[in-house]
Amino acid sequence: MAIPSRFKINHGDVFPHGAYVVSEVEPVRDWEKSSAGRPVQQLDKESGLPVWAVSVLDADPDARKDAKTVTVKISASHQPVPPEAMTGMPFRPVEFEGLTVTPYVAENGSRPRVAYSLRATGMRAPQTGAARPAPKAARADAA
Q1: What is the pTM of this model?
Q2: pLDDT at 143 exceeding the cut of 50
Q3: Which of 2, 20, 56, 125 has the fewest CB atoms below 10 angstroms from its CB?
Q4: Are strands 69-75 and 92-93 parallel, antiparallel or unpaired?
Q5: In a domain, 2, yes or no
Q6: Is the pLDDT of residue 80 over 50?
Q7: Residue 90 burial (CB count, 10 A)
Q8: Given pLDDT bands bounded at 50, 70 and 90, which one contains residue 108?
Q9: Within a domain: 61
Q10: Alpha carbon separation from 94 to 113, 114, 118, 128 (Å, rounded)
Q11: According to the model, what pLDDT value does residue 10 have?
Q12: At a CB cut-off of 8 Å and minimum separation 6, what does 54 contact?
């Protein structure tokens, strides 16, 4: 049985209330190949493409304080460009394409926990009019 280390998942399953870019898109440094004066960008083990990272705010009002901002790594040949900010606001709504999740055990002293690494193949502005599940509260009210 071949179990992949990365599991495909839809953007709406991870961010049902939406997601917002809150940092610049930056190259991920390969610490094993880099030296003091020569940084080397990490390459994705599966695709061989350079890896970029962006911090994202999860708009879920029920998300724990320590889980409100997550990092999504993007494998792409060129530096991804975040969508435009909302008019009059500093927020940049985003949807990730080719999203995968990798569970791992975070060694947290005497309290290890299961954590998740998010990767994508691209990002774009949210698709308007696309069929998306309604937020939890809206679904509950409809019942």
Answers
A1: 0.82
A2: no
A3: 2
A4: unpaired
A5: no
A6: yes
A7: 8
A8: confident
A9: yes
A10: 28, 26, 14, 12
A11: 94
A12: 21, 23, 24, 25, 26, 71, 72, 74, 80, 82, 123
- Name the one residue in this structure whose structure tokens are 């774009």: 124
Domain count, the chain: 1
Q: What angle (nearest 5°) sits at the alpha carbon of residue 103, between those of residues 4 and 71?
A: 115
- The single-letter DSSP state of residue 55 is E
Q: Residue 110 has what pLDDT?
A: 84
CA distance 93 to 27: 21
| CA-based nearest residue to 17, from 141, 140, 143, 134 | 134
* pLDDT at residue number 1: 59
The residues, any chain, with a CB within 8 Å of residue 79's CB and separated by 6 or more, are 25, 27, 52
Q: Provide the percentage of residues in the chain whose pLDDT is more than 90.
A: 63
Closest CA to 117 of 67, 71, 64: 71
Nearest to 124 by CA among 11, 28, 1: 11
Give the side-chain half-sphere CA count within 13 A for 24. 4
Show the tokens assigned to 73. 């790594």
Residue 119 lies in a domain: yes
What's the domain range around 84? 7-142
Check pLDDT > 50 for residue 140.
no
